[in-house]
Amino acid sequence: MISNRVLVKRYAEAFYKFACESIGAEKALSNLKGVRDIMRDNPELMEFLMAPGVGLSDKEKVINTVLTDGFSDEIRHFLAMLTDKKRIDCFHDIAEFIRIKYSYEGEEEALLRTTYILDQEVIAKIKKKMEDKFKKKFKFYIEPDASLLGGIQIIIGNTVIDGSVRRRLDELKEKLMAVRVT
């Protein structure tokens, strides 16, 4: 059985490639964001599209009614296809996958947590070092976090680079707890 993560990736990349060829990346991303916002503000729409007792033609009529101005045929067809394949429940994950992977034209989001405000020069040096290490471009978001007690922590997707004083103290505590006193 194929995992949900693999399905999300396949659908996301297929839609994005198809949409970019026909309507362009910017319009594809805008359409996904718009649909995601509509579904977030109207949870009953997702419930309707997932309802087993409602026929596909009725669901397509609602999709075409709700997504009129500014939405492309590509996004309407994509939603109808997800509904037909009983994968509409994956839409939020698909939209999020595309947003993370493609929103910044090759830039990946990274969170830089620090206990104090950093100079732009320091941030630029950290960013360059990370880009050289990972061979990717990053869009950095800065978040102050006093619980680190000093140093920095960088979060890129599921990767955490932790150079904080808090982490060092936690490691020292673990080592001391492991030492047996005789």
Question: Biggest sheet: strands side by side, in what order?
Answer: 2-1-3-4
CATH fold descriptor of the largest domain: Peroxidase, domain 1
Number of helices: 8
Provide the CATH top-level class of the largest domain. Answer: Mainly Alpha
Question: How much is the radius of gyration in Å?
Answer: 22 Å
Separation of the first and last Cα atoms:
53 Å
Largest sheet: 4 strands, mixed
- Estimated helix fraction: 55-70%
Structural class: alpha+beta
What does this entry look like structurally?
It is a single chain. With 182 residues, this protein is α+β, with helices and mostly antiparallel strands. 59% of the residues lie in helices and 15% in strands. The protein has 2 domains: 4-102, Orthogonal Bundle (Peroxidase, domain 1), CATH 1.10.520; 107-178, no CATH class. The protein has helices spanning 4-22, 25-41, 43-50, 56-66, 73-84, 91-102, 120-134, 165-178; strands at 107-114, 137-144, 151-156, 159-164. The protein has a 4-stranded mixed β-sheet with strand order 2-1-3-4, with helices on both faces. Strand 3 (151-156) and strand 4 (159-164) form a beta hairpin. It starts with a helix and ends with a helix. The relative contact order is 0.11.
